[in-house]
Amino acid sequence: MNTLETDRLIIRNFSPTDWKDLYECLSNEEVVRYEPYNVQSEDECIEEAYLRSNEDAFWAVCLKDSNKLIGTIYFQRQEPLEFFTWELGYVFNILYHKNGYATESCTKILEYGFNNLNARRIVAMCNPLNVPSWKLLERLNLRREGHLKQNIFFKYDDEGNPIWNDTYEYGILKHEWTS
Ligand SMILES: CC(C)(COP(=O)(O)OP(=O)(O)OC[C@H]1O[C@@H](n2cnc3c(N)ncnc32)[C@H](O)[C@@H]1OP(=O)(O)O)[C@@H](O)C(=O)NCCC(=O)NCCS
Asked: Which domains does the chain show, CATH number per domain?
């Protein structure tokens, strides 16, 4: 099992038993507002925790003191593999926002990516309306590299029309991280 440690957190692979904490996180409307899915049911979280426990892209972020899962990080190598580029994503339980936990855990993941996985570039995307998300990326020293206009939709309005979203693209290179 892959485990990373920070002052306050353990960042580890998922286990099927994480479903309850995952449910606490993903059943909140506010938390999933900008995600490509809607609030998740208990059954969906049972399935999701099982799937995540069988792949490397998702990390469980847990409080060191209590072992409670308070957030999840997505960190996936992009294709083509020879670009050595990873994409970062994150979703935290609303009860644990505004404590610096996302910054602390994502900093560790970036360090792990550049130092242990030999990442050359790390990228992230978010909706410009999702201010906490792009503020987090800027705290992590990622650079805003693009503003795509109405390039994507995840959800439909009440009349069945796509709700088009803009996207901010962010990135950081290894030499920028180390300097
Ligand atoms: C995106 C998300 C992870 C950001 O969470 P966050 O709580 O703002 O980020 P952090 O945990 O790093 O906390 C930083 C905040 O805590 C404050 N803070 C309090 N105590 C702190 C501490 N000990 N150390 C660092 N910061 C601390 C910081 O000042 C900062 O506040 P500010 O944004 O008002 O300046 C969160 O909003 C989320 O999960 N949203 C729902 C899912 C989502 O939209 N994901 C992104 C899709 S692109």
From this structure: 3-178 (3.40.630.30)
